[in-house]
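The following record pairs a protein chain with its ligand, adenosine-5'-triphosphate.
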Amino acid sequence: MISGKRTRTAYFCTRCGSEHAKWQGQCRECGEWNSLIEEKVTVRKGKSGKAPLSDRKRIPEIDIESQAGYRSGITEFDRVLGGRLLPGMTVLLGGEPGIGKSTLILQAAEAFSRQGLAVLYVTGEESLSQLKLRSQRLGVSGENITAVNTTSLEEAIGTLGSTKFDIVLVDSIQTLATDSLDSPPGTVAQVREVSHQLISLAKTAGYGLFLIGHVTKDGLVAGPKLLEHMVDTVAYFEGDNTHLYRMLRATKNRFGSVAEIGIFEMQPVGLVEVNNPSSLFLSSGRGEARPGSVVTAVCEGSRPILVEIQALVTPASYGTPQRVAGGIDNKRLALLLAILEKRCGYPMASNDVFVSVAGGLKLSEPSLDLPLLTAITSSLLNKPVGVLTAVVGEVGLSGEVRGVTMIDRRLSEAARLGFESVVLPGVNVSQAEGQKIKMIGVDDIQTALDKTFG
Ligand SMILES: Nc1ncnc2c1ncn2[C@@H]1O[C@H](COP(=O)(O)OP(=O)(O)OP(=O)(O)O)[C@@H](O)[C@H]1O
Ligand SMILES: [Mg+2]
Ligand SMILES: [Zn+2]
C-alpha cells in the first residue's frame, strides 16, 4: 500500500480540459491554439484496495427508478430542464458575472423547497449572512433549504452524507476545491475533479445537482469545456445590462429538447417569469409604421415569440461602409447584404448598415433572413412596412425564400397579438391553412420586396 504525495507538472487545455505532458501551441484534443496552461498537480495517494464490481444488468432486468422527477413550479425554469428535474440529473448553469445566477438558483431552491424537497445550498462565493440578506429581499423563507458556506469539497460531501437531500446546488463550481489536489480552486484540474466527484455522487445518491459556473469572455464556462460533457443539461443565463429581461437557454439536454428558453425579468424582488414574451420584445409605441422596422415571429425551442427587427441604412461617409449587427451574427448580415445587392441591385456597398433586435434579444434563427432584408430595404427606400404585417422566411444564396419550421405556431402568435397579414415562404402557405391571418406567400426575395413595398 502506497501513500504520500506525488507532484507533477501538467498542461491543461482551458477549452476542453484535456491534459498534456508538454506545453504545445495547439491542443491535440480540440485543436484550439494557445489554450494550454501549466498547472502543478499534487495527488495525495490514498489506500488502494480492490475495486468493487459495479452493478451489471441486462436491459430488461433494469428497474426504472421513480422517474417522476421534480417540478419547481416555475414554468420558465422547468421548461428549460425538459419539464422536470430527474433524480441524479446534473445541470450546469453558466452565466456572466452579475447576471443573476445566484438569484435564479435561490428562487428555484425555494420553489423546490415549497414542494417539500430537501435542498442543500453550498455557497463558496458568499457568506451565510449574505445569503440570508438575499433570501429576505427575494422573500425566500427557505424552510427546507440547508445552507453551508465552504470551499472544501470534502466538507460539502460530509454534509451530504449526514442528511438525505433531494437537490444540491453549488454556487459556484470555481470556488470548491478538493484536498487531494494542491492546485488552487478554479484551476482546470480542480474544476474537473470536483465536478467529477459531485456528479458521480449525484448518480449514486440520487440527488439532482446544479453546478453554477462563471463564463469567460469567449462565452465558455471558465475552466474546462469538458464540464459540458460531464453533465446532463447545460443552460446559460443571458441578458444584457441595459435590459431587465434575462433568458435561460438550454444548449444541451439529455432528457429533453434543447433550444428551449425561459424568460424572466429582473426586478428588485427577484426574477419574475415572463409568460407572454411577445409583449416584451415588441418595442413600445408601435402605433404608426416607421421605415426600417419589421416584426417577425421566431421560434425559440417550441415557443413562438414576436420580435421587432430594426434597421438603419445611411450613405457611407468614407472608406469601408460600416456593418453593425446587434443581436444577430455579423457574418449573416454581411451575407444578406451581398444577396440584396446581387439579386435586387441595391447599392449596399455605398451605405452604412446598422441592424438590431429590439429588446436586446440574441437570435440565430434562419427565419430572420427575410425580415432582416425587409427591414434594411424599408430603411433604404424610406418606406414603412404596415404595422400589422409580420414577415418570416429564410433566404438562400440565390435569393430564393425557403420554408421555415413551425409555421403554425408563428402565425397563431402573430394573429393572437393582432397582426392582420404575414409575408411568408410560398411553401409554408399550404401548411398553415385555417389561420386567422392573411397570408402573402413569396418564393424569392425580389417578389417579397415588391409585394411588401408595392
Ligand atoms: N438590492 C438589490 N435590489 C435590486 N436588485 C438587486 C439588488 N442586489 C442585486 N440585485 C440584482 O441582482 C443582480 C445580481 O444577481 P446575482 O448575485 O444573482 O448574480 P450572479 O450571476 O450570481 O453574480 P456573481 O457572478 O457575482 O455571482 C444585480 O446585477 C442586480 O441586477
Ligand atoms: Mg452569484
Ligand atoms: Zn483542448
